């Protein structure tokens, strides 16, 4: 039997996943926790085969950071990242941590059990892209990586000079990118832009 | 070529044509040269023309509104930061709504200049800028609050979705059953109806916990995972009350627990918490079998140290028969505390 650790702070989702595991003949629940920071401890004795890991967990602990630490010491443990947030960088971060799969709770048509089966068969299962989110007149796919970097900095309340220093570019380049972003989206100012981006969970700087 | 030396009359005429007010005086305030504009401004402010520059400046500094002009003290006034430390500046709004900046500067060891410049437009723009800055700061605060609670908002959204789902399912079952009863087709639809009701009841049992508030305590889950890996965690002393201090404490306990089990095969971890008027003193030790004289901090300990120091707490690692962590968390973290999951 495949031992599964569920890391999920939404009780509804956790109950639904536990109920699917209980019905399965292949999987058995090892433990179910709501804080990603405890996941590494749960894996210390090497009894876990598969982790279903939420990104935004209890106490603002990041499932992605926890996954990176677990993979460092236990590369054999398979990890599937689950999220209901369309945050554009999550897939990329999950891949960088070496996670084996990624599943959107609210988008896409693939069932979680199917992703689990394929991952346990050695596949890396990732959605093709992040969900399409409308930001002003623009789609989320129309932003460049650098533009996302700048919106992320703005969402953290950084000033133009601080953004320039963080990204190692000049303040004029920051202004140039912001002008382009505002032109694409049709917003009057960066506050409107950031409010929309955060409200639609396209950027979550803490995770 | 001979250059004609300007006469006193020419100089006076020249400074009278200057659009601002200007006055040159000796150090004791004796007026050497003053233009008409300055005299007119001073007349409106003090009721007399400038007789002694030093006394006039003191009058400006202690000026109380006289119905004709008011002294402006608002912090957004457009001061020149480079000059501010060298020159003294005062601001007045006159009866015609014009705003003037009076600036006192020492030209040399015996000459003082008072200059008045109209800054009405600059003042209006600065006022607007100040108001906009305040509004932006407020919006930024609200945006930060939204960012802090976004995960919680999402959880609430999920709960609402589950409630709506149950509501829809229940409504569907009731409608189907009512239809079957009124159309007298209960027997032939019995199987379908039973399945629908069973599925709805199953959904109910799956989300039975939706209506309860999630447990915000950090301890039970840590104890649960510690038990899973066969290591008992014993807490001695009273734990901090604030969420932030608790989060730091548990981050340290997690790191110690991970290292104790991974490197020393420990089966028990003791967390001793003491408190004085300034801070919590926490000692985390284990019964592991490894004795070390020194350790090289890996990613885990370094990250913990960084997190603690960012919040004003500190970390010390003691080596000996086993490795102990000494953590100091200031009490005033409580002030900054702002809940995690409630």
What is the count of DSSP helices of chain B, taking H or I runs of 4+ residues? 10
Which structural class fits the helix and strand makeup of chain B? alpha+beta
* Biggest pleated-sheet summary of chain B: 6 strands, antiparallel
Mean pLDDT of chain B: 82
Question: Short summary of the structure?
Answer:
The complex is a heterodimer of chains A (207) and B (342). In chain A, 43% of the residues lie in helices and 15% in strands.
Can you describe what's shown?
The complex is a heterodimer of chains A (207) and B (342). By secondary structure, chain A is of the alpha/beta class. Chain A is 43% helix and 15% strand. The model of chain B is unreliable at 208-215 and 336-342 (pLDDT under 50). In chain B, helix 8 (243-264) runs antiparallel to helix 9 (299-310). A six-stranded antiparallel β-sheet of chain B has the order 2-1-6-5-4-3, with helices on both faces. Chain B has a five-stranded mixed β-sheet with strand order 7-8-9-11-10, with helices on one face. The longest helix of chain B is centred in the middle third of the chain and has 63 residues, at 120-182. With 342 residues, chain B is an alpha+beta fold. Chain A binds chain B through residues 9-13, 15-16, 19, 30-31, 33-35, 37-38, 40-42, 44-45, 47, 56, 58-60, 69, 72-73, 84-85, 155, 157, 191, 194-195, 198-199, 201, 204-206, and chain B through 136, 139-140, 143-144, 146-147, 150-151, 154-155, 158-159, 162, 206-210, 214, 218, 221-222, 224-226, 228-230, 247, 250-251, 254, 257-258, 261-262, 299-300, 340-341.
């Amino acid at each position: 039997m495949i031992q599964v650790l569920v890391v999920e702070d939404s009780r509804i989702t956790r109950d639904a996943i536990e109920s699917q595991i209980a019905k399965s003949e292949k999987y058995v629940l090892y433990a179910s926790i709501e804080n990603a920071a405890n996941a590494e401890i749960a894996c210390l004795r090497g009894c876990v085969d598969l982790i279903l890991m939420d990104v935004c967990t209890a106490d603002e602990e990041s499932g992605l950071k926890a996954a990176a630490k677990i993979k460092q010491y236990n590369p054999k443990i398979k990890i599937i990242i689950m999220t209901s947030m369309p945050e554009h960088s999550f897939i990329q971060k999950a891949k960088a941590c070496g996670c084996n799969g990624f599943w959107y709770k609210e988008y896409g048509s693939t069932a979680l059990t199917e992703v689990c089966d394929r991952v346990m068969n050695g596949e890396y299962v990732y959605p093709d892209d992040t969900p399409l989110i409308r930001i002003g007149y623009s789609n989320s796919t129309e932003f460049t990586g650098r533009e996302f970097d700048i919106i992320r900095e703005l969402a953290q309340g950084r000033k133009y000079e601080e953004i320039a220093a963080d990204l190692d570019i000049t303040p004029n380049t920051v202004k140039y990118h912001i002008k382009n972003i505002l032109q694409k989206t049709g917003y009057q100012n960066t506050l409107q832009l950031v409010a929309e981006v955060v409200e639609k969970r396209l950027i979550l700087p803490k995770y | 070529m001979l250059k004609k030396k300007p006469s006193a009359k020419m100089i006076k005429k020249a400074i009278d044509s200057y659009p601002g007010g200007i006055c040159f005086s000796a150090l004791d305030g004796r007026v050497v040269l003053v233009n008409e504009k300055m005299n007119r401004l001073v007349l409106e402010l003090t009721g007399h023309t400038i007789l002694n520059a030093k006394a006039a400046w003191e009058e400006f500094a202690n000026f109380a509104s006289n119905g004709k002009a008011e002294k402006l003290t608002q912090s957004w006034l457009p001061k020149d930061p480079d000059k501010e430390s060298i020159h003294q500046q005062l601001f007045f709004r006159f009866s015609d709504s014009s705003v003037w900046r009076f600036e006192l500067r020492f030209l040399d060891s015996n000459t003082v200049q008072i200059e008045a410049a109209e800054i009405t437009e600059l003042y209006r723009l600065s006022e607007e800028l100040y108001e906009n800055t305040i509004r932006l700061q407020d919006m930024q605060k609200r945006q930060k609050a939204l960012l802090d609670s976004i995960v919680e908002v999402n959880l609430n959204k999920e709960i609402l979705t589950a409630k709506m789902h149950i509501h829809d399912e229940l409504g569907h079952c009731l409608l189907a059953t009512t239809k079957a009863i009124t159309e007298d087709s209960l027997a032939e639809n019995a199987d379908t109806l039973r399945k629908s009701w069973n599925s709805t009841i199953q959904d109910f049992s799956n989300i039975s916990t939706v209506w309860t508030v999630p447990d915000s305590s950090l301890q039970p889950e840590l104890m649960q995972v510690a038990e899973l890996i066969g290591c008992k965690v014993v807490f001695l002393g009273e734990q901090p009350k604030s969420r932030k201090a608790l989060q730091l404490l548990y981050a340290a306990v997690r790191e110690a627990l991970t290292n104790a089990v991974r490197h020393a095969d420990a089966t028990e971890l003791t967390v001793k918490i003491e408190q004085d008027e300034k801070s919590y003193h926490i000692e985390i030790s284990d019964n592991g079998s490894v004795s070390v004289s020194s350790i090289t901090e890996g990613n885990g300990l370094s990250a913990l140290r960084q997190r603690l120091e960012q919040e004003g707490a500190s970390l010390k690692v003691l080596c000996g028969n086993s490795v102990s962590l000494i953590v100091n968390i200031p009490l005033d973290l409580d002030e900054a505390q702002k809940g995690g999951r409630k």
